[in-house]
Design goal:
Layout (H helix, E strand, L loop, with lengths): L7 E7 L5 H10 L4 E5 L2 E7 L4 H17 L7 E7 L1 H11 L3 E3 L3 E4 L10 E4 L12 H13 L6 E5 L5 H8 L4 E6 L2 H13 L5 E5 L14 E7 L2 H14 E13 H13 L6 E5 L2 E6 L7 E2 L4
Parallel strand pairs: 6-7, 8-9, 8-11, 9-10, 11-12, 13-15
Antiparallel strand pairs: 1-3, 1-4, 2-3, 5-6, 12-14, 13-14
Helix pairs in contact: 1-2, 4-5, 7-8
This protein binds S-adenosylmethionine (SAM).
The site of S-adenosylmethionine has 23 residues, from α4, α5 and β9.
């Protein structure tokens, strides 16, 4: 009998709950498609093309980071290969509609919804961004807040499934550009844009750390980046260049202990006032490059 094709690799990690966020950050960096947190650890899904060596290297990297932070690096993991059908069933079981901010709801194509929120339908395929992760949720809330100001244009850096870009289009941004350096994410985002009839969203593949975006006369009104703090540090100057002085920049994917370093980077660039949100150990920063109001908002 022909063996079923491996579509996804399921990584089951048993670890102290205090270390989950640290390990999640490494997994996001290594291209996980999604993470399910559990009481005794987490489950992370990778595309079937990810090799066992790459997953082992990611786990070694996580151990190194935990050791570097003076934390215990005691955890165990197993890897299971999932054929497509198993994946679909598992994924669907864990996904519920998600309400984000005051106006948005994130649905999978099979969800039924009769409320009056703006719908974003995301096919949870091969890219990150179903709305279930804290980093995405905080971005959605901040985009909603930014949409109360000028909503001429929005740039979504690291679009994944396209969720944030589609949300921006739903909230009334006129021109939305979504970029990702992963060709699979770009394809997924384009499919989701079509699924949502979000014709205002243009999805662009960007393979370098340069923001290879056509220069705009006055910059983007809003720039949202749900990346990692390392990538944000590398891209920060480009992000600032691409933003309108009175626009909003939203930075997510930052862990609490990385917040101070990002603040330092921002203060070196004369950004003094930053709005801070957090869910669990994840922090989301937003600010206006030219004119900010000091505010700290804690979200539990
Ligand atoms: C954490 S996911 C965020 C997905 C989605 N925006 C969300 O908020 O749920 C980060 C995405 O950024 C992409 N990415 C990472 N580094 C990038 C870079 N330097 N330029 C563009 N995209 C990048 C990854 O491929 C991934 O799809």
């Amino acid at each position: 009998m022909k063996a079923a094709q491996v579509c996804y690799r399921k990584l089951l990690i048993t670890v102290d709950s205090k270390l989950i966020e640290h390990i999640s950050a490494v997994l996001f960096d290594c291209g996980t498609l999604g993470i399910e947190e559990r009481e005794d650890g987490l489950i992370s899904y990778f595309p079937g093309s990810t090799t066992i060596e790459q997953i082992n290297a990611a786990m070694d990297n996580a151990k190194g980071i935990l050791n570097g932070l003076g934390l215990s690096s005691e955890f165990t993991f197993t890897i299971e290969d999932l054929p497509h059908t198993d994946w679909t069933t598992e994924w669907k079981k864990g996904l519920n509609p998600i309400e984000a901010g005051d106006k948005l709801v994130i649905l999978a194509p099979w969800h039924e919804y009769s409320g009056d929120r703006l719908r974003i339908v995301i096919e949870p395929a091969m890219a990150f961004g179903t709305g279930h992760h804290a980093t995405t949720l905080m971005c959605l809330e901040e985009i909603e807040a930014a949409a109360l100001n000028t909503k001429d244009s929005l740039l979504d850096i690291g679009t994944g499934t396209g969720i944030l870009a589609i949300a921006a289009a739903r909230l009334g941004f006129t021109q939305v550009i979504a970029i990702d350096n992963d060709p699979v994410a770009v394809e997924t985002a384009r499919e989701n844009v079509e699924l949502n009839n979000a014709a205002r969203v243009e999805v662009v593949q960007n393979t370098s750390n340069d923001l290879n975006i056509a220069p705009r006369a006055r910059g983007f009104d809003t720039i949202v980046c749900n990346l990692t703090s390392e990538t944000i540090k590398n891209l920060l100057d480009k992000i600032l260049e691409a933003a309108a002085p009175n626009g909003t920049i939203i930075l997510s994917g930052i862990l609490k202990e990385q917040e101070a370093e990002i603040f330092h980077y921002l203060s070196l660039r004369n950004i003094k006032y930053v709005r801070v949100k957090n869910i669990g150990d994840w922090v989301c920063l937003s600010f206006t490059p030219g004119n900010c109001t000091p505010l700290r908002v804690a979200v539990s």
